[in-house]
Each structure stands twice: as C-alpha cells, then as structure tokens.
C-alpha cells in the first residue's frame, strides 16, 4: 500500500466561545482575541462564534451566573439550577440560549469547539476561574458539547505553538476519519494504516490492542463492530499528546524521511538535543512542509489541509510554501523570535 498523507481541501468549521474570539460578551463586557496568535493560519478554518449566555437574553453587562446544586449535566436533567449573583433562577433562559447555540453549531456543521474553560456555561473541565477551584464541571453548554461528541479544544491551548500544532493535526485526522465511508474490512484497514502511527503516539496500548482486534476480524464485519471501532479511534484522537512523545515521533518520521529520500533537512534535531517548545514547533512545521513537498508520508500528522486555490503550479510552489511557513511562524512565535 502506498504511504501518503491524506490531503483535505474543505475548510473545517470550528465553533468557539465568542468571548475567546474577541467579542466583549462576558458578564463584565470583556473578551479576548485568543486566535490572534494563529496569524494567517486562521484562514484555514471556518469559525462559528457563539455565546450561550448572550443568546439567553441576559444581556451585556450582566450579573455573573453559577451552577447551584450540581453540575451542567444535572441542570440538563432538571436536578440542579443556574442562579445569578442576586439569587435569581435563570435556568430556563440559559437552557434556551445553550439550545439555540447548539442548533447554530449543527447548522454550521461544526466538527470542533474551542471552549472557555472556567465558565459555568462553556467550561468543560472547570466551571470556576478561581485558582485551584474546579467548580462543578462540566458547565451547561460544556455538557451539551460532550454529549454531541465534539472535538473539544481548550482556548488557552491555542496560545501555545506546540499545543496548537498537536490539537490541529489530531483535529484534521478526526474530521477526516469521522465522515470517512467504511463499508468493509478493507476500508477500515486502509484508514488504520493512515492513523496508526499517530494513535500509537497518543496511546500505545490502545493501538496495540486495536491492531490485534483488527487482525482477528472476520471477513464480513458487522456494522455495529465497525461503528464501535470508529468510536474508539475518534476517542483516542481527542486525547492530547505530550512534548516528549511529539519530539520522539518527529525524530522517527525524520529518520524515515532521510532513509526514503537519502537527504537531510537542516534544522531538525534529535530528541536528546535540548531546545524550547517553540523551536520544536518550528521543526514540526518544517518537517510537515518538507514531507508534503517531497511526497513522503509524515505519519505523525497524517491528514493535512491545503486550500485548493492555493495549490500552486509546480514552479511557483516553493516560493508560496516558503511564504506560507514564514507567515504561520510569524503568527505563532513570540516577538523576540
Ligand atoms: S464563556 Fe461562553 S457564555 Fe461565557 S461569555 Fe464566553 S461565550 Fe459567552
């Protein structure tokens, strides 16, 4: 089987807590532009900002709200309430706001959501912004997002070049695999062949177990088995990797590149070489781009996005890719870099 990266040309739609995209919709009339660090890469996605509290009709500025008597899941099941600072019960309004934002995300066909953790509404793993306190996670909208099995990215991770790189590559793989038609065992094997290395990096035990399970599959695989395997792989792709694992994968992929092409790439360092995460992110982008140009499989980032209109003719290709990587780095690197 030919080893090749999957290239997708359709932009992925990402929902985002509107206050993290610069809208001053928080209770105190504030917001942050957390996407500014992405630079030109921001154009590679379609964004769908929503604010469930504003859609509740509570207005800006408003009294802050909190979960009372349970977490967001319990609010959804009617066992807990949402109250504002004055003690007014605003459960009904907030549920309507959350419902209407979820409808918007579905209409937009959003695959992922960048959430503001620490919010009683959009928070997933924290519903309090106070240091050390987790609150009562998930928040109300956070609970809905979990229920919809969205690919969930904490907004603070977008600020870190290496964390964002990790989230982006897994998101692309997740998006591609989620809607990939799987009609038979062959389709599943082909997809696993593309995703195996990345899944091994994230969770080696899972990848080994799944490899064994796939080898034992009968000729005709039941639809339910196919669905459950797809679910397990998607679950794994949702999990973040670590800098250590990423650095080792980069080196393995680079070694494969050197063996295949018989040439080196200046600037890629071995895992033992001490450098900061920004430098590692630079190396990853360089290797990703080089492997794509040279048509060598870069297994740690197996699905990549390229705008069809920006797929240049061969002679213009190098210059355009140089400009693209420079712009991406300009967006994610701190000033002094
Ligand atoms: S965290 Fe969610 S509900 Fe709160 S202001 Fe931001 S978008 Fe609105």
Automatic annotation (TrEMBL):
It holds the Pfam family 2-thiour_desulf. InterPro entries: 2-thiour_desulf. It comes from the Bacteria. This is Uncharacterized conserved protein YbbK, DUF523 family. It comes from Proteiniclasticum ruminis.
């Amino acid at each position: 089987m030919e080893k090749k990266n999957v290239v997708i040309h359709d932009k992925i739609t990402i929902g985002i807590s509107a206050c993290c995209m610069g809208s001053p919709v928080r209770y105190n009339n504030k917001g942050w532009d957390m996407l500014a660090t992405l630079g030109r890469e921001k154009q590679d996605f379609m964004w769908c900002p929503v604010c469930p509290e504003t859609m509740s009709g509570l207005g800006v500025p408003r009294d802050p709200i909190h979960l009372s008597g349970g977490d967001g899941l319990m609010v959804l099941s009617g066992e807990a309430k949402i109250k504002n600072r004055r003690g007014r019960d605003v459960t009904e309004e907030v549920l309507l706001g959350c419902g209407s934002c979820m409808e918007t995300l579905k209409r937009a066909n959003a695959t992922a959501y960048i959430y503001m953790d620490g919010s009683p509404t959009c928070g997933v793993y924290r519903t309090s912004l106070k240091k050390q306190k987790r609150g009562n996670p998930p928040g109300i909208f956070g609970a809905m997002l979990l229920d919809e099995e969205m690919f969930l990215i904490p907004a603070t991770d977008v600020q870190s070049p290496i964390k964002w790189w990790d989230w982006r590559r897994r998101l692309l793989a997740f998006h591609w695999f989620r809607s990939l038609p799987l009609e038979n065992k062959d389709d599943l094997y082909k997809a696993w062949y593309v995703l195996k290395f990345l899944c091994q990096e994230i969770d080696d035990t899972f990848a080994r177990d799944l490899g064994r399970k796939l080898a034992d599959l009968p000729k005709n695989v039941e639809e339910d088995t196919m669905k459950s395997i797809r679910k397990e792989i998607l679950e794994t792709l949702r999990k973040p990797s670590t800098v250590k694992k990423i650095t080792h994968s980069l080196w393995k992929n680079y070694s494969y590149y050197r063996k295949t092409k018989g040439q080196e790439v200046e600037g890629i360092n071995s895992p033992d070489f001490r450098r900061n995460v920004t430098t590692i992110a630079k190396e990853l982008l360089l290797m990703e781009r080089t492997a794509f140009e040279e048509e060598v499989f870069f297994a740690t980032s197996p699905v990549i996005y390229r705008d069809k209109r920006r797929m240049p003719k061969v002679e213009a290709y190098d210059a355009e890719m140089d400009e693209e990587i420079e712009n991406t780095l300009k967006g994610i690197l701190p000033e002094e870099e």
